[in-house]
Design a protein that fits this description.
Elements lengths: L1 E4 L9 E7 L6 E2 L4 E6 L4 E5 L4 E6 L6 E3 L3 E6 L3 H8 L13 H10 L17 H8 L22 H14 L20 H13 L4 E9 L1 H13 L9 H15 L5 E4 L4 E4 L5 E3 L1 E3 L2 E3 L2 E2 L7 H17 L12 E4 L19 E5 L3 E7 L2 E15 L5 H16 L1 H5 L2
Parallel strand pairs: 12-16, 16-17
Antiparallel strand pairs: 1-8, 2-4, 2-7, 3-6, 4-5, 6-8, 9-19, 10-11, 12-15, 13-14, 17-19, 18-19
Helix pairs in contact: 4-6, 7-8, 7-9
Length: 413
């Protein structure tokens, strides 16, 4: 017999939740074959098998918490002949389709047999995208999240109308399956991403926040995106307003380095980070995750758009890696994809700043002394008052407004 113990897959890891077993007892596995999906306070990831062999025992049930060093899997040292005999009576052996719990729930609710679905994820894993394809057009049973229709007065020009319509479709996040806020009645264990989020928010709530809110005219921003699409339709296919937001915030963090820092009151230190790594909040059926765009200030607008699309897809398909959640120095929340205007976002410790962007909609705006209906972009900023004062927060906020109001200055860096 040999054992596989829970390793330390991240700095300071003490425990992990067993999200889903990808193997069964009695099953033969190959070296590096995914054994189990775990959730830590930093990320969700799969652990590969350290050897070829037969699974004799699984140490935990799905939903259990395992401590680092505890036995996850026991392997038998049987001969190949004995292994074949052991596999025969095993219930299904390795025939169970590989899929995350949320994918299994969706398939169950839709009455779809996962065995009929071809998985395109790692190791043939069935992803949400695979399920969307299999359920189409029946996937209408799973409503998508989109921005509500604008209720403000219509813009006075055809250009404004087109720009606002474009902004609403572009700012909307990729279709997220499931029903927002829905859960069966009764008592449930605090597990999964919701447990990790609860713990992180409890830590962040102790930060003394100060907030700033303002709004800018997004006409030039939307026109710039429109022109880019006309000149390079293929290159601009993934170019949503979020890419502009990330670029503006990254420029601002480089302009005001203290906002790209962190504070450790216990150690009595302030760290100003050399790299500008911007986290983007991505909603998925399991909850909110924040993958990180590394060196965001050094990327082009199109490169940022491609990276946003890649990370968002990886979060929803659960192929995002542990490393892609680490190293963030500030965060963006694009809650405007759901139609919101202003908010009071919560900082993700140990970062000291978070910027929230509302929905681009036609609203009254003063232009050269006249009140006009213009596509406006609300933004909300939160900073850690232990390190950042109101004057710096306001300067950062005004810099973002300047950059996003004038895309030429945003791109000419």
């Amino acid at each position: 017999m040999s054992s596989f113990r829970l390793p330390d897959v991240g700095e300071g890891l003490e425990s992990a939740e067993i999200v889903e077993w990808l193997v069964t007892e009695g099953q033969e596995v190959e070296r590096d074959q995914p054994l189990v999906e775990i959730l830590t306070d930093k990320s969700q990831t799969q652990l590969p098998s350290p050897r070829t062999g037969v699974i004799s025992k699984l140490g935990f049930a799905e939903g259990d918490m395992a401590e680092v060093g505890q036995v996850l899997v026991e392997f038998s040292d049987e001969t190949e002949a004995t292994q074949s005999e052991a596999r025969a009576p095993a219930s299904g052996g390795g025939s169970r389709p590989k899929a995350a719990p949320v994918v299994r729930r969706r398939a169950l609710e839709a009455g779809l047999d996962l065995a009929t679905v071809t998985g395109t994820g790692p190791g043939g894993r069935i992803t949400n995208a695979d399920l969307d394809l299999a359920l189409s057009p029946a996937s209408a049973a799973f409503p998508t999240t989109s921005a509500p229709a604008a209720t403000a007065p219509a813009p006075t020009s055809e250009l404004s109308t087109a720009l606002v319509s474009s902004a609403q479709s572009l700012q909307t996040a990729p279709a997220a399956t499931g029903r927002i806020g829905w859960m069966e009645t009764g008592t449930h264990p605090l597990r999964g991403i919701r447990r990790v989020t609860a713990q992180a928010m409890e830590r962040s709530w102790t930060i003394p926040h100060i907030h700033g809110n303002d709004e800018l005219d997004a006409t030039e921003l939307l026109q710039a995106r429109k022109r880019m699409k006309e000149r390079d339709p293929e290159g601009a296919a993934q170019l949503t307003p979020l890419a502009f937001f990330v670029l503006a915030v990254a420029n601002g963090l480089r302009r005001f380095p203290l906002l790209n820092g962190s504070i450790d009151p216990e150690a009595g230190t302030i760290t100003v980070h050399n790299d500008v790594n911007v986290g983007i909040a991505v909603a998925s059926p399991e909850g909110l995750s924040v993958p990180v765009i590394r060196n965001a200030d050094q990327r082009s607008l199109f490169n940022l758009a491609a990276e946003i699309a890649r990370l968002s897809a990886a979060v929803r398909d659960r192929t995002v890696t542990t490393a892609e959640f680490q190293g963030g120095t500030a965060t963006i929340s694009n809650y405007g994809s759901l139609g919101g205007r202003f908010a009071t976002p919560i900082i993700r410790a140990p970062e000291v700043a978070i910027v929230g962007f509302g929905s681009i909609k036609p609203r009254p705006f003063v232009v050269e002394g006249e009140i006009l209906a213009r596509p406006t972009l609300p933004l909300s900023i939160a900073v850690d008052h232990r390190l950042i004062d109101g004057d710096l927060m306001t300067a950062f906020q005004e810099y973002l407004i300047e950059q996003l109001s004038d895309p030429v200055s945003l791109l000419a860096r």
